[in-house]
Amino acid sequence: MALRLGDIAPNFAAQTSVGPIDFYEYLGNSWGVLFSHPADYTPVCTTELGRTAALKEAFEKRNVKVLALSVDSLEKHAGWIGDINETQHTLVDFPIIADEDRSISHAYDMIHPNASETFTVRSLFIIGPDKKVKLMITYPASTGRNFNEVLRVIDSLQLTAKFSVATPADWKEGEDVIVVPAVSTAEAIQRFPKGVTVVKPYLRYTPQPNK
Questions:
Q1: What local confidence, expressed as pLDDT, does residue 112 receive?
Q2: Could you give the CA distance from residue 112 to residue 48 in angstroms, rounded to a whole number?
Q3: Which DSSP string corresponds to 1-17?
Q4: Which of 85, 69, 62, 86 is nearest to 21 (CA)?
Q5: Residues 185 and 103 in one domain
Q6: What percent of the chain has pLDDT over 90?
Q7: Among 16, 122, 158, 186, which one is least packed by beta carbons within 10 Å?
Q8: Inside any domain, residue 4
Q9: Which of 14, 34, 45, 55 is catalytic?
Q10: Are 16 and 98 in contact (CB under 8 A)?
């Protein structure tokens, strides 16, 4: 059965470019981003891994650990990492999983036969400290991921987890957020001392609580 939002992310042991890992142990109490690539030495994915490496401080600031996955071998990963570092002017030091038997790919439903019988599609999962899947995005091979959007979603998810707020369409860091329906207006006024703007009983805004 396909993995769905709110499901517990499957744990796994894997060989990676930085050594063997247990997924849950690697995450610890952090958030996680797990993203797959059809194969090593592919052009779009080369730019994505470089961009991920360049965003190391942004992920660390948010207590997020990243892992990439490809069905190719550790030997191929090592050569590809050299190319990524050279062409993208960065240093890839996060794990790239060698999923040669495709066991992880199948556990996370990354194989889509109508797209490719053998390679993973380009899926991205955000996983919370509770090990539940918070977000899934799947891209075609031709479209590079927008990592600004990945960071924006992480910021939104972390606000929801900590403050019981949601974020409106096109929300960006520092903008007003929405009080979730489970919180009454009276409770919201107590909880959010910066103020609550009631547009409709179900649509209530408040300044971002941690700003």
A1: 58
A2: 21
A3: ----TTSBPPP-EE-BT
A4: 69
A5: no
A6: 82
A7: 186
A8: no
A9: 45
A10: yes
